């Protein structure tokens, strides 16, 4: 990474090393870091509130699977439905058949909105299984989810994906693996926004460990998906069909989350 003519050139190989057909990517490390950091912070919260580490371990499994499955299906259904409706097995298998031979593809398409839906479903299943209050978990889990999102966007930056629109600003980034155009580093904008949201939620929780049920969850939904809605104006559309839309798919999918967030913030507690 080096600065030339007031812009930053980015040409990092997203693969750290390869052994045969397996390659370790920076994105995978960022994804792993997201879960490790989230686990450590959630453990602090659980201990503070008298919950066991065993319960957190169970929750972590649900969240990991919910995130991965939801993000994968979200990408396939929201962004590339035409292709995957004809190749449904490729939604869940990390390879495809071309001319009778296997091609290892990995899961290269993951959608954050799908991941959010997957997490909510995982939380619902977990709360039923363990008889734990859904809103209690949600109000605490979202504190670390925003920070985890920052790690994921950093991984997108290493992958030179989800790139921004062209810009003449001095911090524009030329993603040389894509083209030689200086662009908004939209991934870093989003990562920074998520870090700020994490700090806000963490501070609110530290000051009041027993907020109104659903209140922190609502703040999270409004802030995170509000930031996502605004920052989409600085991004290239991910799929061609979005070019004819006033608001792209990421923005349209953010609106319901923000509406639910506003409801959770302003609703009256049941005991009132």
From TrEMBL:
Its EC number is 2.5.1.145. Catalyzes the transfer of the diacylglyceryl group from phosphatidylglycerol to the sulfhydryl group of the N-terminal cysteine of a prolipoprotein, the first step in the formation of mature lipoproteins. Pathway: Protein modification; lipoprotein biosynthesis (diacylglyceryl transfer). One of its GO terms (molecular function) is transferase activity. The keyword Lipid metabolism does not apply. Keywords: Cell membrane, Membrane, Transferase, Transmembrane, Transmembrane helix. This is Phosphatidylglycerol--prolipoprotein diacylglyceryl transferase. The chain crosses the membrane at residues 26-47, 59-81, 106-126, 138-158, 186-203, 215-234, 249-266.
